[in-house]
Protein 1
Amino acid sequence: MSSELRKLNELIHAILPANRFYARKLGPPGDFASLSDFTGRVPFTTKEELAANHEQHPPYGTTHTFPLTRYHRFHQTSGTRGKPLIWLDEPEGWAWILDNWEWVWRGAGVKAGDTAFFPFSFGPFLGFWAGFEAATRMGVRAVPGGGLSSEDRLRLLLHSQSSILCCTPTYALRLAEVGEQIKLPVSSLGITKIIVCGEPGGSIPEVRRRIETAWQARVYDHHGMTEIGPVSVSSEADRDLLLLRHDSYFCEVIDPATGAPTPFGETGELVLTTLGRHGSPLLRYRTGDLVMPVPHEDHFALRGGVLSRTDDMVVIRGINIHPSSIDAVVRSFPNIAEYQVDIDQRHALAEICLTVESDAETASALARKLRSFFTLRIPVSPVAPGTLPAFEVKAKRWNILR
């Protein structure tokens, strides 16, 4: 019996029949004879299904295997795919989350004795809490940078002698801008590694190159979800490959329309089963992340990281446009700070336009490059620096009018 199949059978016996959500979906527990038996008998779990369950059984839903008194961690999804969901963990489940984050840190070459800086305010979503606690558990000195301005964070970063930075790609670029403004270039701060998460920028070569040029540091991508946990880290050997934590997750990639498995080299939706989070499990969870699986060792990895999300893609004049594609083109212009994408879907033919913090000449050059890349005319309007919102955590640059 394979390790994955053994863990799937352990999972199903650990959660049934106590977990009401999955007891209703699956019925009595029974061993799976093979991985195909598991995928054939277990239906997908969707975010919409979880949202409906939480709505019917407020505030926590019925996805818990144990009595609520055992749960000591309270987290909430970011709400990028609808109303935020509260997600709870008991001590054993939280330890499993930290194990996975330690795997991420080790994958980026972080070790005990290093100093890592976290330049964000700790909100209810899981990612930064887990990253911070996992770092301290493995002997990394973790420096909290919440409740400070960007200028003060840069000064604290210098004072703390940190060599590791953990933030979103957007905020890494934002800190570089602020450093230029206050005459404290981020390349002088001693950062050697930057672990980025929350957005797909770390696996977009143009974005990664821009961050690395500003900081003179190596960028590692990572992604995860509050309801799933930490999932991936960049390959040390191949910059464009995102490795999955197959020891902790049963990973699939499917055609979003049919649910059929996606062949290697083609784009599909990532589906994950949490093998060790027995207290708050998810089985065959449709993440909404569009990825390209490629063979890697005994499993598969993701070429180009998380390419987009199933609900983010827009179709303009028959052209599929993903946020990561727009980001790649915009970030190839070093003198563009922030930008915004406006999409008007109120009419029969959708329209798209960009607003960028740049001069008119750069905006015109960007419009030409966008037209060449997408074979589509996309108007670009320049505005003065500081006009558009700046983001610390997940950037919200797409404004869709429906």
Protein 2
Amino acid sequence: MSNRRTFTPQQKSQIVLDLLKENKTIAEIAAEYEIHPNQLLRWKSEAMEKMHLLFNKDSDEVDKIKKKHDAEVEDLTKQIGQLTIEVNWLKKKSGLK
């Protein structure tokens, strides 16, 4: 059995924001969230290393995934419409409707 707690990316980002605000000491934040200070420092350094990716428009993966998802939804909606027409036509021709 694992006693490790897991944190969502949203929770980690909120904790790192608390660290960056510097309103509290690392020890206070560690005690508040019950996390070892070394872990907090690792999260903070990782956030600082990757912060430039937030502003990089060339590799914006979220937009690519969203566009792909929207295209798939549109395609599936078209398929549903076509199948509905075909089912209604078949019902009409078979005399079930």
Protein 3
Amino acid sequence: MPIHEKSLIEPERILTKESLVVDGVDVSGHWNTMILPRTITEYDDTFEDKIKQYPTAANVHRCWQCGSCTNSCTVYALNTRFNPRYWIYLTRLGLKDELVKDKDIIWQCVSCNKCTNICPKDVRPEGVMKALAHWMEDEGITEKRPSTIFDEEFWEQIAERGRIEEGSILMNFFKKTAQPLKQDWLVDVVKRMTKHLPLGALIHSGLHFVFKPKVKSWDRTGQVLKEYINEKKGAVHG
């Protein structure tokens, strides 16, 4: 199904004239817009299957291009370049180069899930947007976003110990994102904790931060979990 949104057409391919008469009929204005054709020959017919390997995009093949996702999109209302329907269309055709043109905005989905709630085919467009953003990160097309780095740090602690320590997650996250360890909001949080939490709770938290306890009998469970995650990653990147 062709895409007709004018905002998706490169300006240099749109031809208009202030005054145009055809066979004695004045077609000036909106009706005299002409579009130069183009031919795209570079496509990857395995790309849709690749994106479907990301769990959130498993239903991308169901899309029938009704446009409900874009019409309901919170971000599209502010920026018409953010167009879920168009990106799903490109995904299904394997037009990766066209997707990459929008690498600077494709990650801006706010996960309001309006598109997913209204989709008549259960495509879950919000999940497809997330999958495309992760695909670009995995391929090195875009840098890892701070949210991805935080998720990875969170997962690493779960895999190793079966639990998390908030202090360790924050410190490692700040280091990996080149942020200073001393931040005004964090200093304020620490002050409030020392003021309101019992001494025993503070000591308990400090000891956990230093010695990093592990959930009992976690070694085997953690290993199985790692194998499962690696298997899923292999399916995506294989």
Protein 4
Amino acid sequence: MEKLDTPAYVINEKILAADMCLLRQIADQAGCRLLYSPKASSLAPVLTRVAEHVDGFACSSLFELRLVDKLCSVHGSLHLVSPLIDDAALDEFGDRLNSVTFNSLSQWQDLRPHVSASTSAGLRLNPELSFVHDPRYDPCRSNSKLGVPVSRLAEMIAADRGLLRGIDGLHFHSNCESTDFASLLATARHIQDVIPEALEEISWINLGGGYLFQSVEQSAAFFDTVALFRDGFDLQVYIEPGAAAVRRSGTVVATVRDIFPGEDCQIAVLDTSVNHMPEVLEFQFEPDVLGHVDDGVHTYSLAGCTCLAGDSFGQYAFDAPLTIGSQVTFMNMGAYSASKAHRFNGVALPTIYTRDETGSLEKIWADDFNEFARNAGKVGSPDIAPA
């Protein structure tokens, strides 16, 4: 068994490269431009590998822009897409921004003086078609903060045909980790029906993310969506996947530190936490665990190591028993785990490893007390000694 300092976050570069090649193939076949959304994972080895396959990056903040600009400045274009645009980002990046997408017409009016003449301005739409059942993750929920409702935009355009003067593109993002592109096509047709005048006036449209591309064969409705805008309105089409690019390539490896009897199974306490994989708690799902079998004879409740009662990953069964020191691997943790992880209870963040295409592991970062203290605002404080 490989020696890992756990908890560990392992990036499999072979899987990452394969998934990026698939995305590149689908984008090329569809005739659209491929951006990566670094909010899914902004780890340096992820960004530099992804940069080899994409046309650019769809960033959500000034920090993301700076990081991508520093690590991947020779690879593709820079786009800013956020519910809240900071004028500091527009001023700092100037004409290095290829596009900026505003979340509202009021934001566009307030910040348009800060937009460089060479930067293309876009506006986010709320298509008002919901496909996500949980309103916490539904961009089209009632009173959504995300984008201008398409029906309201249609009314405003009817009253003022010059409303979108200066706006070059439209953006929408209406789903979450879906594999059904029929909903994307339905959204595209709805937008076409409601605001055809707007589509005639712009030069590009961004379909956002929220879809998991699994194969070319399953992407027919996606190709139809791109064609609707590209061929029907002569638009440059962008997509900006995040999870689809990195989800499969990341694992979290933990070590069993304690085992004791529960009511109907053994409880195995790991040296990781749901705080290292926050979407487990947010989405309330049980993540995939390597070696789990539905009819396994050894059943455990895998628990995190913090004092939060709900710090638990669920029940899992194995053919062989776990022991103290056993390693447990959580699969498909490449998206949002590292970018959302935090140190509740002072539990250190996972050590980061990369596994290259030959299978070799390399440790690239390890958390320590000084990092914890720095984030507590104690830099230079005399009461904190170096670790």
